[in-house]
Amino acid sequence: MDSKEFRRRGTEMVEYICNYLETLEQRRVTPCVEPGYLRHQLPDEAPEEPEPWEKIMQDVEDKIMPGVTHWQHPRFHAYFPSGNSFPSILGDMLSDGIGCIGFSWAASPACTELETIVLDWLGKAIGLPDSFLALKPGSRGGGVIQTSASECVLVTMLAARAQAIKYLKQQHPFVEEGHLLSKLMAYCSKEAHSCVEKAAMISFVKLRILEPDEKCCLRADTLIKAMEEDEQQGLIPFFVSTTLGTTGSCAFDDLAEIGEALQRFPSVWLHVDAAYAGNAFICPELKYLLKGIQYADSFNTNPNKWLLTNFDCSTLWVRDRIRLTSALVVDPLYLQHGYTDSAIDYRHWGVPLSRRFRSLKLWFVLRSYGISGLQAYIRHHIDLAKRFEALVLKDSRFEVCNDVRLGLVCFRLKGTDRINEKLLSSINASGKLHMVPASVNDTYVIRFCAVAQNAKAEDIDYAWDVITDFASEILEKEQADEVSEIVDRRKTHTLAQKRSFFVRMVSDPKIYNPAINKAQTPHRMSTELTSPGHDGTVVTVQSPKTPGSATWISWPLAFLFASADDGTKNDVTLRFRHLDTMMRLSASRRNSATGGSSPSPEGENGITLLKSPKKSPILMRKRGSSPNPPGAVGTNNGSNK
């Protein structure tokens, strides 16, 4: 591609980007694909020969766009805003065109100096103390652009660690650094971003995560108590990370209270993470949220979140740049130059050596919108959040779960976490909106954030209509499920009652059947069951019954087996459908007036089974009893068939 074709293709690309942003509403917010979708659509190897540009752009639309989550979509309300604007895009375009790698002043003086100037501009607009500004007379501080807030937290923790080790080495010169490192303890709130925990892992230091108050705010008494406890255990506090505008609920730690309390610990580094909320401090009415910043050693915010600047652009300021750079200096000969003592080399301010010309896009944005234009943009997003909060409060089924100060609203359906999980998953699966959850005071909530640059009140109303429609559907289904569950429980309970009644009825028939009571089960009865085998073998069963004792035969059969009160024989012949068996019932003529029989089949006149020799040997239930016990009616000759 030569410059002539680049002009043509560049014009086409600008047109494509404009059309994309103007028609975003026609697309799903989130893609409807599964992991690995793209691998099956692209070849296994790069093409050997060049391909036409038209084919490449067609694949962008046909294969790439179906898998894109559209962060600039007016229905995207997850996370925080992803900064985007035409001046920022053009700034990145120019940076890419210049293509310099500004790791030092000598590598690209303009790249270094513009970054210093723009960071001072933004720091003044936010309201940072003069000690954080590089160009203020007598200041040792300054600002730098990092990739993300995670990198800002990491480099400040590394600087704090180096400072602590240096201080401890002076006190204990003969102790190994590895042992001193094992004693270092960092602190943050449970509401702090996960990047603090990751930074502690990379830095090989301990991290104590503290409980905030009911408003998700870290308080000084909680922090100081933890630090004193750790000191008693021989540990050494060295780093505290506070948050202004937490990710979960946009809560604010009490920075002024914490900063004042930490004056008792002069060697502890106090960092302030304001990745989202810090941008709002350019508005005079919101600067009160920055109270206590004079105690901080470092501060970061992300213009690529809420200042219309494309990623990556995370800004970090430190009060003393020497404390930062001394922890990260590596100075080989091939990187040295003649102006090292009089110029800033940003390669000492972070982890990577290579650095893009990122200050260009921030410079473009600040000049194109002005501070007043950026203030209007932030205030508009706050108004949209307040509008959404009002809609939530009007619906008695919902509740707001955070103090809405900026552009984030945390809300939930009143009820269980499960029903809120179901609500969010249903909404996200529809592709109409996209939101994410958070845990506030150990409660599942749904986060709603105004993120689109040109978001309107109609977008908020649409989002609320979608949310309430899904909520109504889920609540109706929940009520139906509850009714069904109640019915099922009643059925189960009724069945259990019936089974219990039957068991009691079988166990004590006289209570439930007056006919049995009146009939007076005889003192003794005898049953005979004969089953002819292939060789004429007969199975004989005899069951005795004595007054006052239970029978091992269930009472319905016992009733049939019973004889009348006058002593006449109750001669009943039964046939079982599933057996080639006949049963004859008759009163026993043996010991009819005496008791002493056992209620179980193991009693005096036990069961004797004589089975066919073809199937098994003779099995006798009672040792020593004969095949035909005394009093048995049946014989082996089949005479009682």
TrEMBL record:
Pfam families: Pyridoxal_deC. GO terms for biological process: amino acid metabolic process; carboxylic acid metabolic process. The modification N6-(pyridoxal phosphate)lysine is found at residue 305. Residues 587-641 are annotated as: Disordered. GO terms for molecular function: carboxy-lyase activity; pyridoxal phosphate binding. Keywords: Decarboxylase, Lyase, Pyridoxal phosphate. Residues 595-604 have a biased composition (Low complexity). Its cofactor is pyridoxal 5'-phosphate. GO terms for cellular component: cytoplasm. Belongs to the group II decarboxylase family. This is Aromatic-L-amino-acid decarboxylase.
